[in-house]
Amino acid sequence: MRACDLQGGAPGAGAPLLSGPQGGDGEPPGLVLLGVNFRNATLSVREALHLDDEASAEWMRLARRHGAREAFALSTCNRTELVVVGAPGGESTAADAAVDALVEIRPNAGALCREVLRWRLDGLAGVRYLLRLATGLESAILGDGQILGQLRAAQRLAAAGGSLGAVLNRMLSDASRCGRRARCETGIGAGTAGTASAIVSMVHERLGVTSGRKSGDGLSLSVDASWPTVVVVGAGQVARDLVRALAKQKSCNLVIVNRSGERAVELAGETGATAAPFERLAEICQSASIVVAATAAATPILGPRELDLLPRESGRGLLVIDAGLPRNVSSGVAAEVLDIDCIRERQGRALEQRQAAVPAVEALIASEIERFKIWSVRQAAEPAIRRLFADAETFERSLQTLGSAVDLGQVRHQLDRHARRVRGLPPRGSRRQRAMASA
User: Which of 26, 61, 249, 325 has its CA 20 to 30 A from that of 345?
Assistant: First the structure.
């Protein structure tokens, strides 16, 4: 097993990724995980090696053609990580197959493709990392739940292309189960640790939304005059995540304003919100209950002209959430303004809760590793067990031909007993015991 350039503990946890026993019985033979992520590669490298669904499917096909028995790719904005399974003892061959396939997909980035070899985990270390990933311990934001859905989508893509075998199917299923358990049984997903999520909670708190009323398709947001209006200024990543989250809740009228009208129209079309031209920003703010500014503008875009307004019909003043750095809102406005420090304070409280849940999540991962090791031992023993029983049947037929007086039932019983022990199954018990148990 080789691990390069990564400590990988949960942020602030101080625990190395490869803590605990390594190697030994239960190592999945030929399994290699390698790639680039936000911890070990710059954004430009991750962008160059990013794989969309079509490219991921092609990489998996090529990796198998180059010698890998199984292949799986996970590519997001934070990572492009590849898992391959080769023949027992063929880890290096499998790793070469992964890189050769990537070079074939990205011929203009051949040198960058070799970056995936800087960080590599073999066997159980790779399994452990994937479990940590599914539970949110390896996310840029501790406990981020988005990665679990991304893993499932990537698994479906790999299954559709016939790239998953027994090892990766088991590994990914275990990871999915572990991720679900972590979110249900621990506080790893507590609070709102992401910037967009923190803003959503601020909006819902102001609107008095305790549980969202989802529309049928999660995208349709019909306009209701009785609902408050939330104006989102910007169409970057934070604004997009915010609009998507708010659009799933039928609790407000959403209006998107952006200097680039095309991006606002695109986002509005995706979420069912309303796009408005930037020139009408002051007019639109007149009817808003909440304005969220999330742009990369170098100077403030909201000032007294837009925000110093009469009290709303609800009797509550305008709430402005400024997610910009530099600030999007000029100082001295009469409206109530929550700035980036307020957002980060809310994020910090959530991260404290999530950090406290890390030991419980690591305990879940340890139990899943033990389950995987037991399964792996059974898988390794299965071919020998099948050959043993096949040989026993041949031996039995030979003895029957010779008219031997050997107690074949006792021979079969002993074979079955040892096979069940290797498989980790309980003994069958005597016929009398089975009859009593079923009575």
Answer: 249
What fold characterizes domain 195-348? Answer: Rossmann fold (3.40.50)
Write out pLDDT tens, residues 36-53.
999 999 888 998 999 999
Q: Count CA atoms within 13 Å of residue 105 on its CB side.
A: 27
Q: How many CB atoms lie within 10 A of CB 224?
A: 11
* Ramachandran bin of 429, using left for φ above 0, alpha for ψ from -120 to 50, beta for the remaining angles: left
Confidence of residue 83 (pLDDT cuts 50, 70, 90): very high
What's the confidence (pLDDT) of residue 307? 87
Q: Which fold has domain 31-189?
A: Beta Polymerase; domain 2 (3.30.460)
DSSP state of 108: G
How do the domains of the chain map onto residue ranges? 31-189, 195-348, 391-420
CA 307 to centroid of chain Cα atoms:
39
In DSSP terms, which residues pair with 123 in a beta bridge?
none
Give the residue from 100, 82, 101, 2 showing the smallest Cα distance to 37: 82
* Angstrom distances, CA of residue 370 to CA of 137, 224, 377: 19, 54, 11
Of 114, 148, 137, 147, give the one whose Cα is nearest residue 36.
114
CA distance 254 to 229: 6
pTM above 0.85, yes or no: no
Strand partners, 122: 32
Radius of gyration of the chain (CA): 28
Strands 319-322, 336-338: pairing is parallel
User: Looking at per-residue confidence, does 379 or 135 come out higher?
Assistant: 135
